[in-house]
Specification:
By secondary structure, the chain is of the alpha+beta class. It has one domain: OB fold (Dihydrolipoamide Acetyltransferase, E2P). The chain contains four helices and eleven strands, in the order ββββαββββαβααββ. It is globular, with a radius of gyration of 16 Å.
Length: about 200
């Protein structure tokens, strides 16, 4: 993790390369909600998806973040067992999403939003940016090692509007850990792209 200059304490995840480059984490799971066509009009104005991980995927992700960051416990935007991946927030309005049981002791529900300083870095897409969603539903075979660095050349864009609830998706995101206004160390998952692998109507 590298310290981000500014008045607020925050760190961004980088790959241990020479030179270091931003880490694009990749996770997959069941899509609980999609708000990518237009920013949310309730709570924080931003685009986002919420994803419920497979149990094993969740444990691996939590283990990686704990090991890489050194923080045994973090707050996060987590509701109904679904983790939120979002663009930059436009304001500090309080989210209105309902809470739920937290599936891991590492993450705790947080009603705090990212500060304007955190939102100002280039690790996040702008709140009204187009989040690319790629459609892999009709692809018979996909080498992710080759496809992920060249998604725009490998997969067509999804043009069906919001991704249907219950779809199986893969999401690419950067990660920031910051000190929220309430003093909690908080994980921000900054969406970069989504791959739609399967949907309920398939």
């Amino acid at each position: 993790m590298r310290t981000v200059p500014g008045s607020n304490q925050r760190y961004n995840f980088y790959c241990a390369t020479n030179p270091p480059v931003p880490l694009i984490a990749v996770s997959c799971g069941w899509l609980e909600r999609s708000q990518l066509v237009a920013p949310s009009e309730t709570g924080v104005r931003q685009k986002y998806i919420t994803v419920i991980f497979h149990t094993q995927e969740w444990e691996r992700t939590v283990g990686f973040i704990r090991t890489a960051s050194g923080y045994p416990e973090l707050s996060a935007q987590l509701a109904r067992d679904a983790l939120q991946f979002s663009t930059k927030p436009q304001s500090s309005r309080t989210p209105t999403s309902p809470g739920g049981d937290v599936p891991s002791k590492m993450f705790a529900k947080s009603t705090q939003t990212a500060s304007s300083t955190v939102a100002g870095d280039n690790f996040s897409l702008a709140n009204d940016a187009t989040v690319p969603v790629y459609d892999a539903r009709k692809v018979k075979s996909l080498d992710f090692h080759a496809a992920l660095p060249n998604l725009s050349k490998t997969l067509p864009l999804y043009t069906g509007g919001e991704i249907p609830q219950g779809s199986f998706v893969m999401v690419g995101y950067t990660m920031t850990i910051y000190r929220a206004n309430n003093g909690n160390w908080t994980l921000g998952c900054n969406i970069q792209w989504v791959i739609l692998i399967g949907s309920p109507e398939d």
